[in-house]
Design goal:
329 residues, three-stranded antiparallel beta sheet, 56% helix
Amino acid sequence: MEYALIGLLFLLVVFMLLAVRVVKQGFVYTIERLGKFTLAAEPGLHIIIPFIDRVGRKVNVMEQVLDIPGQEIITADNAMVGVDAVVFFQVLDAGKAAYEVANLYAAIMALTTTNLRTVMGSMDLDGTLSKRDEINARLLSVVDHATSPWGVKITRVEIKDIRPPIDISEAMARQMKAERLKRAEILEAEGDRASNILRAEGDKQSAILKAEGTREAAFRDAEARERAAEAEAKATQMVSDAISASGNQAINYFIAQEYTKAVAKFADSPNAKTILFPVEATQLIGSLGGIGELLGDALKPAEGNVTARSGTPVPKGRVRASVPRSGDS
């Protein structure tokens, strides 16, 4: 009897162990009853009927990453390129993911690969290299639509790498270098043109300012000559008035004054040991006599005679004059 109770208790423990199922977070278990799918067990504790119910599939419902191996794709312009991609997906319906497709991962990989060839094969090489976002968007739309019956949501499709052939890569490098050289030459030419324009503008402004300065200088020079002529004319008019008032005496005075200044310059020369007069001494004395007469007439008092500064009376018409000798310096 005791053995029977022990055996019954053992069977009860085994039954409880088979009936209790704990589903981990991030997973959904499919429960099959007599081989038929009946329940998708969410994370937590679940009780099933042993020997009747069993766990069919353990489906990962977290977002997963599927690496698409490198593919050799021929573009629309017959260029062979190597492409690597990744697919991000998440199972939304564990029952469909478990029973609608035999191998979910292989199916997603094959579907992505074929559509990748289709999308990139319809584009030329330049388009495949420059329009990755467009390729990703088209792949995402096509693959997500194809996997929706499997209870799978494709969240992202990303192109990791595009490898053009070596010769095409070298040609593209040369093209890029040529394009950059062209842009550099264009920028340099534009800089030279701007520099020449600015230099020409500067020369133009300089010429304008120089012409204005020359015109102003000429105007001021003409004004100065005009004023000098006016002054000369005024002086000439004053001399003419003096001559007309005093006759030949004023003429003799001016001539004698200028002649005396000219002779004095010979005597003031520091290197002159001998003075050669270009005129006769009698002419100089006659001129000085004329000056004396002018002074006598100018200083003649009411009585008709002049008293010298030393107190000695000087006869009318005579003035003592001393002429430096030829040997005096």
